[in-house]
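Ticket closed. Logging final result for DUF4371 domain-containing protein.
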Amino acid sequence: MHEASKDHIHKFMELVRLEKNRTTIADALHKCAQVTLLLGKQELAFIGHDERSTSSNQDNFREVFNLLIKRNDELLLHYNKFSNVFTGQSKTIQNEIIHCVYEYVLDVIKSETNDVSLFSVISDDTTDIVEKSQCAITLRYVKKKIGELKESFLGFHDVSCSKNGKALFSLLTTILDHFNFKTKLIAQCYDGASVMAGHVNGLQQLIRNEAPHAPEYFFPHF
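Final structure:
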């Protein structure tokens, strides 16, 4: 038989096995999501130094996932049957789940800011573990129904390639466009970047040109 035909049949059989086990695979993915939420909440690393099955201390994701699977005998039985096809523990699956969680959190923040008439933005310089410059962006607003002051973190964004006012302006407005910042932004606070010091071509003035109700504040590092 031609090699391409063998490969096609092999892929088809894998698909058939996945179809037969789609319910238990969905259960496994649910466990993956639970582990992702737990590690994110506790600010724990996903990846370990030794992820081999023979390791006595695999990464946090695998250790917690395996613990949850083993607590359910029926799920464990099914999982062992299809784990040679789908384990749910790959870095690709982990990253996709993290992205889905991020999208959900972002939708919640959008929903909350849709109900408010104003908010402020806080941007701070930081570095990651390999010393790359990052921009941390946070929104600050009062939730309309309960009057609770809230700060919602929008993420870290790589600015290592360019930190001039125009580049930061492009980054910030791309993010804030989802929140109707031109009419709702009433304050902008920056910390750590000299380019944000408020000169004519700096980020603050560029933002104020788009959102005239947003005065400028700058808090330098000491």
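The mean pLDDT is 77. No further action required.
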